[in-house]
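User: Please predict the structure of the protein below. I'd like the answer in structure-token form so I can feed it into my own downstream comparison script.

Assistant: Understood. Taking the following sequence of 326 residues as input:
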Amino acid sequence: MKMSVHGDSVLPAPVSSQNPRKTTIASRFLNLLGVKWLCSRFMAAEDTRNPSPSKVDTSLQLENHQQGYPRFSAITACQPSFSIIRRFMIVRMRLLLYKQDEICVLEEELNRIDREEPCELFLGNRRRDTNQQRKEVMKNLEEKLAEYDEQMQRYRTVMGFENPKPRDVTSLRNWIDGNASIARKETQFLSQSQDLMSCLGTQDAGIKFIEPLLEDFMIRFNRFLGRKPPQRFSRDENVHIFCKTSMQVWSKSLIVWIAVSLLLVPLGVLYCISNMAVRFMVILLSMAAFILTMSFFGRASTSDLLIAGSCYMAVMVVFVSGNGHP
């Protein structure tokens, strides 16, 4: 089955047309729920950023770049989550171990020179030390340690990058397979899943989780309505690249609604319940849900989670104490 590559997700391409009657009934149902209106607003925002084909800046489209690395570089620039490269962890660690051993050898040489020093006065008086062999070893040690520190800092920096999402790696593989623009041997690095890193940088965990789901939904909704995907970055209908700004805005909006729901829904339930034991269970479950959401969506430390959970429980207890019965 042909696969669709879009943003940072993969979906199978449609294989058959839908039943018109079922489509009409489902469309009316979505319109009744307001989902269709909400999605139409989203697509209107997308259309504003992705104008009609006659007004599209074709210099941004992937197909205008030559096959090979020019086009491969273009898609990674259009979709930053496709900026996936190798860390070379084993090679970097081997270089560090080699450099470490070179320093160890020099250290042993320095200890030997100190033990064989005929004039012990030189060991306690650097200004009068005339042992050229020791000075040479110290100079080499300084150079090797500087190189060792630099390599160690680079290794630490590289290891700080996040791992790419599996869907991004799969989407990039699908695009490479569909375009055949890069030699197979030169794209084998994508199979080193444990050694890959994303150059995109640190992302908000909530947005990172919601964006792919939102993209998947909008692609399916486009197909349901029979709309063509925005073609600002590619003329290929199987390539879906949404505007990053609008996706982040909608993702943050959903996160806000989730946060509001975590507070207001339990309060509404507590208002409708008079049994204190049941109220206590509601508070316990809602606090657990709040802390789990915080730990999943954020990068909070254990102490931050405990503080947030305490504040959340305080709000619930104050509400319960001020509302004995509905």
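That's the full token string. The two ends are 57 Å apart (CA to CA).
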